[in-house]
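explain this.
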Amino acid sequence: MLEQMEMNMDQELRDSKLFRPLWAIKYGGDPYMGGVMRFAEMDYDTLQWMVDNRFADPEERQNDSPSISEFLKFLKLLPNFRAIGYVVDKERSDYRLSVEGITGDNLAAIDIIDFVNFAREADEFEINLDGTCRAWWD
């Protein structure tokens, strides 16, 4: 059995890195609804920082999604993609960062092929004529 990683519990640091000033401007107080806050535009560097600083377990996966380490490999190779997911409040026993999907824009044909190969088993999967795409795992 794999040993669970000891998480960094400095939620304020994690959230300030993830949500930057938008967090304070948009929400002004506690933005968590039901103990969860969603994010939609996490790039490779930010996700790698989350893993390096123990805010995200590289082996974590949202149900049938790829692991965070697999998302990292994908985002490193294809910088026009971003991770989508959520963070859980430290007041809950399941405090964590979870990645549950990816979005991309300004994509070349080869990027779309790589996206299809990576995300073809996602629960939601879309490719649009404007060169954007999205995949989400439940």
